[in-house]
Amino acid sequence: MKRFLHKIALFLVLPILLWGIAEALLPVTAFTHRNSEAICFVTKIPHAASYYPHIDSKMQAVGDLCHHTPYQVYKEEVWKTDEWGFRNEHFAFDPDIVIVGDSFMQGTSLSQDQTLAAKLGAVFDGKVTIYNMSPSSMSEFDRYLTMGILQKPKLLIFSMVERNVPEPIVLFRPEQHSTLKNAIKTMLGFGNLNVYLDKAFKQYSIKWLQSRINHVKGQGIPAADGSNMFFLNGIKDGHRPGDLMQEADVLLSYKKYCEQRGIRFMFLPMPNKETVYFEKVPFVKQPEYLLTLDSVLKARNVAALNTIQLYNEYRQTQSRYLYHLDDTHWNSNATGLVAKVLHRYITDGQLLKK
Question: How far apart are the C-alpha atoms of 73 and 66, rounded to whole Å?
Fold first, then answer.
């Protein structure tokens, strides 16, 4: 009986083990339509960052709104991450500028040299060290400063997409964090062991098979004008009452946090695609959330780039799109435009002066 049970166990366990090994060793993008989903930690395997460190990946990616539809647009994406899982060629311990933001700043649906950090670095001719700490939060930035992982920069650029509202900073308290847990994270980080374990247990191959059987595809909302542009929320885009003042309060607290540490602060809002191309949604008029927020921030002396105004002026003379047709995020035209304006803003304001 024991021999029979042993054979049954072997029969069941061996295929699962082989499947897990295969899943762990396959290319990171084998079962996803773009890099940003492929390299994200999903399981509870202890890890120090949200994204896989030391990644060097290349794939033909498509957008989140139209994948597995006739409207998907293939884009060659090169992705490299540093030792902390952030999208940089290498880690910068003592940067001049740190960018803290969301998937826009990370460069979802962009290749490595098309991200804002890369474009801004190129405009500065490589003379300024820029560290892209995205996606992340001000609380995470505080943790890096407190632990001495990162030296304070001269300038911190915080960015967030229009539809979201930033959270207040939760200051890092080392005494409240387990030394054992940190030791386990460090141990599993050697040789990217936690990456292989995460890949093995998040079951992307099974989820891919299920999605193909069920014909899962992007759920983008088509533009009303019959073009090939798609939106995430369409006419449902908007904010709750009180969001604007809450966001202004939080951004002011970010500025004060930075001032207390001798860091200059500026806010870089990322307009919703629906706001930029409002006539295609269609909205009767352009949503005014970001324009109003900019006025409130000016009154509170919080430095901010009026991105939506910049985009509106661009569209008056240029026909090239600023966002991918099949994706929620901006394209390299937009990152190049914003990088040039940021360079002028930073230089004219002497924001990198000690």
Answer: 8
